[in-house]
Amino acid sequence: MSQSKMATRITEEVSTDELADGIVDNLTRVLDKVAPKQVRKCNRDKTWWTNSLSTKRKILKNLYKKKHLHEKLQKKYQELKADFSREIRKAKVESWRDFCSTAESTKDLSSLIQILDNNPKKQMSLLTAGGSTLDPQRSLELLLQTHFPDGQLCEGGKAI
Known about the structure:
Layout: H1 3-11, H2 16-34, H3 51-66, H4 71-102, H5 106-117, E1 128-129, E2 132-133, H6 136-147
Antiparallel strand pairs: 1-2
Helix pairs in contact: 3-4
């Protein structure tokens, strides 16, 4: 590097804050080009939520902040909260009825069946042999004999 370029660099005083700001600006610009911000849509939007509920929720939040001031506000808050809860239940029931009555596609009907099934844990059914249902131990033994015919059971049920 020549003496004149070095002298020019030394005489220009740049603070570390300015350098850091420049780095942050450059990184932000690059990231905005490479990975622009996107609005993420929630897969589980509340289809029953209405504008009326949004308005009541805002009122309820504002009243919640002020309810400690007066006893009248506390009573009004409790009344509005109960009304808000009733309206939510009503909106959910209405949305459910609408969903059930308009379900036509396979996907909608599958979702409906899963919701109504109400059994989160799917259980494996027991095997049958000769028309009678086997108990869990016999089912496992039959599976082992079928898939591992040369395997032998030892004490404690472990295959060797």
